[in-house]
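Honest question from a wet-lab person: if I give you the sequences of every part of a complex, can you actually get the arrangement of the whole thing, not just the pieces? Trying it with mine:
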Amino acid sequence: MKINKNIAISDSGFLLNPATGESFSLNSMGIKVLKLMNEGKDYLEIEKLITNEFDVSNSTFDKDYNDFIGLLQQNHLVETESTKA
Amino acid sequence: MQKKKYERPSIKKIESDMPNKFGMRSEYQPMTHIDGVAVKDIIKNYGSPVFVISEKTIRKTFKDAMRAFTTRYPKVQYAWSYKTNYLSAVCNVFHQEGSWAEVVSRFEYDKAIGNGVPANKIIFNGPDKTRKDLEKAIKNQSLIHIDHLDEYYTILEIAEMTNIRPQVAIRVNMDTGIYPMWDRFGFNYENGQAWDALNKIMMSKKMDLVGLHCHIGTYMMTAEPYGVAAAKLADLAVGLQQKYNHYIKYIDMGGGFASKNTLKGAFLPGSDTNPSFDDYAEKITSAIINSNISPEHIPFLFLESGRAMIDDAGYLIGTVIANKRSSTGKRTTILNIGVNILFTSFWYQHKITPAQEFTHHTENTMIYGPLCMNIDVIRENVELPLLNAGDNVVIHQVGAYNMTQWMQFITLRPYVVMVSEKAEISVIRKGETMSSISDYEVIPQHLKDFKL
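Yes, you can. This is the full assembly:
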């Protein structure tokens, strides 16, 4: 899963969707996960990297990751089958 | 190598077109300690949830209230409102500070006696005083505040039978300009009921009319009505002086002072909008002093404020059970604190503070309790930092009514501990166990066995 190509993210966590004009703020973990997604890493790779670096269990991260992806989808920030070129 | 602290990934839409109607984030610092005692240590020793009472805050609040009144009026006496929090340790802090006891049932009356309050320093209020209750209170020379004429006639009968002069006052209800007007307790001022009761008492010559009492409402968000009420009671006192050459010993203004909690639906925090003790004191004392009561016979001013005296001293520590999203995508967090132990969440927007470090990122959150009941909502909207399952929170200003109105419902009621001024912890009510409940149940013989 990847975020939409035209979306801009600053290092401080400011995210702009030029298609809708909406802007968002991300916390540091949100930025990290989005960057890993943009690098093309899949869930298992992201999970391994995060759980190695941070004090979090696989199950907790799994739950939080899915919740985060749900929010990205709800705000139309990730590519879905219908938005892919 | 120690791993870094984890915070769940979060994304929040920036709303630039309109202000957040749920208010700004209010939590900037975690509450890791209560009066010098670590929240984590309290949980470790007494479990979660757990109520914590700050003795230091009770004593400070009491002194603040006393200062507000004693700097304006020469004779002031507080009576601790048992129904607000009748844990004996809490009552005794107030009694150590000089409070008498104000009770509204035989249970509370006996509790005050058990705590060591002299019976003639107990004010017995309320509509439910049985003949036996009244016999005991009369024999003990407690101060009986008469609520209705049935009670008056019972007192009169007991006085005639025992030849003991009951020490009585009447509760007066009145129009002070507020809505709703509390007229279910006592005798009305405007329609003459109060004078009718006073005349009966004075003409009976069987009892001592020692005071006049009112209690105009609860959580009064303006002090002006207290001035109106005090003026009306002072008018009755002057009338007694003129008609019967009788001087009452006290005017009891009851309670109802608002605490600093925020009512549901309020736009601004209660700490910014509610009157201070000084505001209430100014209105009450000015009205009495400016009345025609003779200065040589100025009565004591009795106060029975409960909520404003204890709310700030109570904390409730709890734990996040889980995070979810509602069907609309809204963040919901389930705590192990439900409305069964936090009864006041029905009318307050309680302040909730995480008990561990957090970042500046927040999310509008709905806080549910653990009960399998749809009404179990602690906060409908609160801007909270990102909490994980297992994190702890501290709920503020829970000292009033929760430890008396709480329900044993679905779960058992937790420990209540008190932090002393020396930062020592004492259990003041043990956590309930299965036997706390089952010991009072009886199963008929024919229902003891079954096969499934």
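Two things worth pointing out. The beta strands of chain A are 8-9, 14-17, 22-26. Chain A touches chain B at residues 15, 22-30, 32-33, 50, 52-56, 60-61, 63-65, 67-68, 70-72, 74-75, 77 (CB under 8 Å).
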